Fold this protein.
Amino acid sequence: MNQTTNAELLRFEGRPSWGVAFPQAMQHVLAMLIGNITPPMLIAGTCGLSAEEQIMLTQAAMIIGGITTLLQLFPVLGFGMKMPNVMGVAFAYMPILTIIGEQYGIAAIFGSQLVAGFVSIFIGMFIGRLRRFFPPIVSGTVVMSIGLSLYGTAINYIGGGSAAQANGSFGAPKFWLLAILTLLVTLGCNFFGKGLIKTSGMLIGIVVGYGAALAMGGVVDFTNLQAASWFSVPVPFHFGLEFHPDAIVMMILMYMVQAVQTIGDVSSTAMGGFDREATDQELGGAIKGQGVCGMIGACIGGLPTDPYSQNVGLICTTKVVARRVFTMVGVIMLLAGIFPKFSGLMATIPQPVLGGATVTVFAAITMSGIQLLNEQPLNYRNRMIVGIALALGLGIDAAPDILQFVPPLLQNIFGSSLVVSFLVVFLLNILVPQEKAEEA
């Protein structure tokens, strides 16, 4: 019976029971929750929004994430990829969103997002012709760069996050204890568990870590849960729309970069979950789905979305790809958006617990990038292209002051390791001739 249930989880059209699918869905919700609600909170602060508007922005993030996740599962007129993934507000957009928000305000963010989302639909339409410019050496490097760049996020979570840094408790022994306990339970389930225990390792680790945090006292904060209302929906066009040419150009550039990340994430999902390469139709559908949902988000207050790499890593780790599981993820996200008490409860999970659980996920993302790179011969040419791209991207990210004499706009663009690594690997792959004889 367990073998049959497990097999249903591992097929896209599989029909595991709702009771079996729910813990799998909750793993994905927990993996993306903090990452999804943090960008709107930061942008609300940047744009000087009221507390009420901050809640509206956070709600919209959950709703647009749910809509995009469901559209990717159930394509409409070619919009969507018909593969599992979890979509949410993207951290990669933060530098551009911050610049636009500081200069023009929140309405300009959504105005430029509306236009850029429309433009990205055409990128998806022509992905078949463009895909040759993004072979595994390019997409693999981007995915690997994403995984490596997320390690700092995991360590920050383990130390207690920004709140702990502010009050001087960052890296406290109790935080390390919670993170290590969560990590050990997660790894124990993944390595030694069977059936649902094995595939639910991250959820079990978080539950154990959360229980330990409650027992410690003073670690779990219920403030957000108490303040959250029971029911509310976003007000369309509440934040307005403004159109500024420079803001639109910046946003279009970021949508182009995110299209490459989407190629990498979708490719990783196909490889890790289905043991095959993604098709042009799937890649194009994913990008077009993101684009149209970006336009919808601009109307209801939802910031730009992309596939969540940590959830891609979870797919690669568990091999769970059943559409029923990810349908539940999308529905849960929608409910969290219209019932803020639900998302408030999720937000009470301490960051050290999330950090300990997501270390395994971020590691899986990095290994997915390596797996993609191995699809091409790792001869001298390819090794050097990948090595230089990662060295420059991660190097500039580690020493951002090297860009202090560069115009502010370019500082924000090239201060991202993902952008630099992408541009370097993309250009070198085009400019450097292929080796005639493959060398080991």
In short: The CA atoms of residues 133 and 426 lie 7 Å apart. The first strand starts at residue 87 and ends at 89.
